[in-house]
Prior knowledge:
The protein is of the alpha/beta class. The protein is 42% helix and 16% strand.
Amino acid sequence: xxxxxxxxxxxxxxxxxxxxxxxxxxxxxxxxxxxxxxxxxxxxxxxxxxxxxxxxxxxxxxxxxxxxxxxxxxxxxxxxxxxxxxxxxxxxxxxxxxxxxxxxxxxxxxxxxxxxxxxxxxxxxxxxxxxxxxxxxxxxxxxxxxxxxxxxxxxxxxxxxxxxxxx
Length: 167
Protein backbone atom coordinates (compact mmCIF):
# COMPACT_ATOMS: atom_id res chain seq x y z
CA UNK A 1 0.00 0.00 0.00
CA UNK A 2 1.38 3.40 -0.99
CA UNK A 3 2.85 5.44 1.86
CA UNK A 4 2.62 9.15 2.46
CA UNK A 5 5.83 10.28 4.19
CA UNK A 6 6.60 13.65 5.78
CA UNK A 7 10.33 14.38 5.82
CA UNK A 8 11.22 17.56 7.75
CA UNK A 9 14.30 19.31 6.38
CA UNK A 10 16.62 20.06 9.28
CA UNK A 11 20.32 20.88 9.00
CA UNK A 12 22.18 17.74 10.03
CA UNK A 13 25.15 15.82 8.73
CA UNK A 14 22.92 12.74 8.71
CA UNK A 15 19.84 14.20 7.00
CA UNK A 16 20.52 12.05 3.95
CA UNK A 17 20.09 8.87 6.00
CA UNK A 18 16.46 9.89 6.51
CA UNK A 19 16.18 10.60 2.77
CA UNK A 20 17.54 7.13 1.94
CA UNK A 21 15.12 5.47 4.39
CA UNK A 22 12.16 7.36 2.93
CA UNK A 23 13.33 6.50 -0.58
CA UNK A 24 13.63 2.81 0.22
CA UNK A 25 10.09 2.73 1.63
CA UNK A 26 8.55 4.53 -1.35
CA UNK A 27 10.56 2.46 -3.83
CA UNK A 28 9.19 -0.72 -2.22
CA UNK A 29 5.63 0.31 -1.45
CA UNK A 30 4.96 3.34 -3.64
CA UNK A 31 3.78 6.65 -2.32
CA UNK A 32 4.83 10.24 -1.82
CA UNK A 33 7.68 11.92 0.07
CA UNK A 34 6.98 15.48 1.18
CA UNK A 35 10.00 17.54 2.18
CA UNK A 36 8.82 19.93 4.90
CA UNK A 37 10.76 23.13 5.43
CA UNK A 38 10.16 24.65 8.83
CA UNK A 39 11.68 28.02 8.08
CA UNK A 40 12.19 30.19 5.02
CA UNK A 41 15.78 31.30 4.78
CA UNK A 42 17.05 34.09 2.56
CA UNK A 43 19.94 33.08 0.36
CA UNK A 44 23.39 34.31 1.36
CA UNK A 45 23.54 36.85 -1.46
CA UNK A 46 20.53 38.64 0.03
CA UNK A 47 22.56 39.68 3.05
CA UNK A 48 24.75 42.75 3.18
CA UNK A 49 27.90 42.61 5.24
CA UNK A 50 27.65 45.15 8.03
CA UNK A 51 30.53 43.82 10.08
CA UNK A 52 29.15 45.34 13.27
CA UNK A 53 27.70 42.14 14.70
CA UNK A 54 24.19 43.55 14.70
CA UNK A 55 21.24 42.06 12.79
CA UNK A 56 20.91 43.70 9.40
CA UNK A 57 17.66 44.91 7.85
CA UNK A 58 17.00 41.54 6.20
CA UNK A 59 17.24 39.68 9.52
CA UNK A 60 14.70 42.03 11.04
CA UNK A 61 12.43 41.86 7.99
CA UNK A 62 12.43 38.06 7.97
CA UNK A 63 11.72 37.89 11.70
CA UNK A 64 8.78 40.29 11.40
CA UNK A 65 7.48 38.88 8.11
CA UNK A 66 8.01 42.23 6.41
CA UNK A 67 9.42 41.26 3.02
CA UNK A 68 8.34 41.27 -0.58
CA UNK A 69 6.34 38.21 -1.68
CA UNK A 70 8.61 37.86 -4.74
CA UNK A 71 11.62 37.59 -2.42
CA UNK A 72 9.83 34.94 -0.38
CA UNK A 73 9.07 32.84 -3.45
CA UNK A 74 12.68 33.18 -4.66
CA UNK A 75 14.01 32.04 -1.27
CA UNK A 76 11.66 29.05 -1.29
CA UNK A 77 12.73 28.05 -4.79
CA UNK A 78 16.39 28.18 -3.77
CA UNK A 79 15.74 26.02 -0.72
CA UNK A 80 13.97 23.42 -2.86
CA UNK A 81 16.81 23.59 -5.40
CA UNK A 82 19.24 22.97 -2.51
CA UNK A 83 17.83 19.45 -2.15
CA UNK A 84 19.59 18.31 -5.33
CA UNK A 85 21.63 15.64 -3.50
CA UNK A 86 18.51 14.36 -1.75
CA UNK A 87 16.67 14.07 -5.08
CA UNK A 88 19.64 12.26 -6.60
CA UNK A 89 19.53 9.70 -3.78
CA UNK A 90 15.81 9.20 -4.39
CA UNK A 91 16.28 8.85 -8.17
CA UNK A 92 18.91 6.13 -7.51
CA UNK A 93 16.20 4.20 -5.64
CA UNK A 94 13.66 4.54 -8.42
CA UNK A 95 11.69 7.38 -6.84
CA UNK A 96 10.60 9.95 -9.44
CA UNK A 97 9.76 13.63 -9.30
CA UNK A 98 6.05 12.77 -9.29
CA UNK A 99 6.63 11.06 -5.92
CA UNK A 100 8.18 14.15 -4.31
CA UNK A 101 6.54 17.25 -2.96
CA UNK A 102 7.66 20.28 -0.95
CA UNK A 103 5.92 22.39 1.66
CA UNK A 104 6.76 25.25 3.97
CA UNK A 105 5.37 25.53 7.48
CA UNK A 106 3.02 28.44 7.94
CA UNK A 107 5.13 31.44 8.89
CA UNK A 108 2.13 32.89 10.73
CA UNK A 109 2.25 30.10 13.30
CA UNK A 110 4.14 31.03 16.43
CA UNK A 111 3.64 27.64 18.02
CA UNK A 112 7.14 26.39 17.28
CA UNK A 113 8.70 23.93 14.89
CA UNK A 114 7.65 20.78 16.74
CA UNK A 115 3.96 21.65 16.79
CA UNK A 116 4.01 22.95 13.19
CA UNK A 117 5.39 19.60 11.95
CA UNK A 118 2.91 17.64 14.09
CA UNK A 119 0.04 19.80 12.79
CA UNK A 120 1.12 19.17 9.21
CA UNK A 121 1.49 15.43 9.87
CA UNK A 122 -2.09 15.34 11.16
CA UNK A 123 -3.61 17.65 8.55
CA UNK A 124 -1.90 15.89 5.65
CA UNK A 125 -2.87 12.40 6.84
CA UNK A 126 0.73 11.18 6.63
CA UNK A 127 1.53 7.54 7.36
CA UNK A 128 5.05 8.31 8.57
CA UNK A 129 7.31 11.11 9.73
CA UNK A 130 10.97 10.31 9.17
CA UNK A 131 13.70 12.17 11.03
CA UNK A 132 17.45 11.84 10.85
CA UNK A 133 19.19 10.31 13.84
CA UNK A 134 21.68 13.18 13.56
CA UNK A 135 18.86 15.59 14.36
CA UNK A 136 18.68 13.99 17.81
CA UNK A 137 22.38 13.30 18.32
CA UNK A 138 23.37 16.88 17.54
CA UNK A 139 20.33 18.48 19.23
CA UNK A 140 19.64 20.45 16.06
CA UNK A 141 17.37 23.42 16.66
CA UNK A 142 16.11 25.90 14.13
CA UNK A 143 17.56 29.38 14.69
CA UNK A 144 15.27 31.34 16.99
CA UNK A 145 13.21 28.26 17.91
CA UNK A 146 12.94 26.70 21.32
CA UNK A 147 11.65 23.33 20.07
CA UNK A 148 14.00 20.42 20.64
CA UNK A 149 14.15 17.17 18.66
CA UNK A 150 12.48 15.46 21.61
CA UNK A 151 9.63 18.01 21.49
CA UNK A 152 9.06 17.11 17.84
CA UNK A 153 9.12 13.37 18.54
CA UNK A 154 6.65 13.78 21.40
CA UNK A 155 4.31 15.98 19.35
CA UNK A 156 4.21 13.43 16.50
CA UNK A 157 3.77 10.46 18.84
CA UNK A 158 0.92 12.26 20.62
CA UNK A 159 -1.01 12.24 17.34
CA UNK A 160 -1.44 8.46 17.57
CA UNK A 161 -1.51 8.42 13.79
CA UNK A 162 1.66 8.64 11.77
CA UNK A 163 4.53 6.33 12.60
CA UNK A 164 7.68 8.17 13.71
CA UNK A 165 10.85 6.69 12.21
CA UNK A 166 14.32 7.83 13.20
CA UNK A 167 16.82 6.80 10.53
